[in-house]
Amino acid sequence: MFKAFTTKRYLAAATAVCAAVLALPATPAFAVSKEMVQLQTQVQQLQDAVARLQQSNDERMGVMKDLIQQSADSVNRLSTNVDALQKQLGTRQETQNGKLDQVSGQIQSLNDSLDEVKARLSRLEKIMQDVQSQQQSINANMPTGTGTPDNTAPPANTLPPASAAPLGKKGKPSAGTPMSAAPMPAVPAAPAAPPVDDLYKTALGDYMGAKYQLAASEFSDVVRYYPEHSLAGNASYYQGEIAYRAGRYQDAIKDYDRVIEQYPDNNKVPVSHLHKGQALIALKQNEAGIRELRALIQRFPNSPEAMQARSKLSGMGVTVTPKR
């Protein structure tokens, strides 16, 4: 910058000197002195120097323009590369999210199949217990003695017990004999609920067969008849899943809350946290959904659901740990 300023001043001074020399009055040839010739020579040299400076300045300005153009091209290429890299990262993240969703769905399907196998095993165990009980009952009722049965008839003159009522004609009690109170007709008992394993197995089969309305009713029976059973937590989770599929997010959140609060040791708690957070986000309650996903990550950091929650938060541009 200093050199450019000095060059400008030098050019201005040289121009002024040239103008002053040219403005001198013309004198006869015989009056030209030696000093005038020297002055003209110096002016010519000054003009040549100015021309060389101007040429050098033009060359430098051309070089600067080339450098600026190259820098602009480099910035444009860098911006294009950054945009392409961002697109690649976005595509990879979407692919990764899709794979995580696929893996999560496969894990959930495996959990559902495992629940169905557990229900079948429980049913088989109950059948085996019933068979063993029947076998023990048969063994207990089998005669163990070796003697002959007593076929001796009672004596002919044996009288009936004194407490027996005298019989009238045709073997009926006489009219004067008091009769004992007649037995009351039995009241039919209310039908008992099916075994929890059978009820849950049926509901899970209907759910796997996409009979969601019927399955919801059957899962509701599991929760109503066996609220303390571990399968009631699973039934509540599947009720939430059915409501979530139907877009009834508020009902789904209530079912997920029941699993989280009433069955804290159930294996459906992590996925209930995840799907509750997703339901809240679907309802545009982003802050509540983010809190739910963070709670899942903090409570079950190594679970597949926590991995999916991290991916969801990253896609939303939210940090896993809240800023203080």
Put the structure in a nutshell.
With 324 residues, the protein is an all-alpha fold. The protein is built from 9 helices and no strands. Among the domains are: 35-88; 97-122 and 194-324, Serine Threonine Protein Phosphatase 5, Tetratricopeptide repeat, CATH 1.25.40.10.
Write the layout of secondary structure elements.
Blueprint: H1 2-22, H2 34-141, H3 196-208, H4 212-225, H5 230-245, H6 249-262, H7 269-282, H8 286-299, H9 304-315
Describe it for me?
This protein has helices spanning 2-22, 34-141, 196-208, 212-225, 230-245, 249-262, 269-282, 286-299, 304-315. It has 324 residues and is mostly helical. Among the domains are: 35-88; 97-122 and 194-324, Tetratricopeptide repeat domain (Serine Threonine Protein Phosphatase 5, Tetratricopeptide repeat). Helix 8 (286-299) packs antiparallel against helix 9. The protein is rod-shaped, with a radius of gyration of 51 Å. The model is unreliable at 146-182 and 186-190 (pLDDT under 50).
- CATH homologous superfamily title of one domain: Tetratricopeptide repeat domain
Structural class: mainly alpha
Give the overall pLDDT as a whole number: 78
Largest sheet: none
| Secondary structure: helix percent | 55-70%
CATH architecture classification of one domain: Alpha Horseshoe
Portion of residues in beta strands equals under 5%
Taken in chain order, the helices and strands follow as HHHHHHHHH
What is the radius of gyration? 51 Å
Q: Give the total of beta strands.
A: 0
Low-confidence runs (pLDDT<50, min 5 residues)? 146-182, 186-190
- CATH class category name of one domain: Mainly Alpha
Any idea what the shape is?
Answer: rod-shaped
N-to-C CA distance: 48 Å
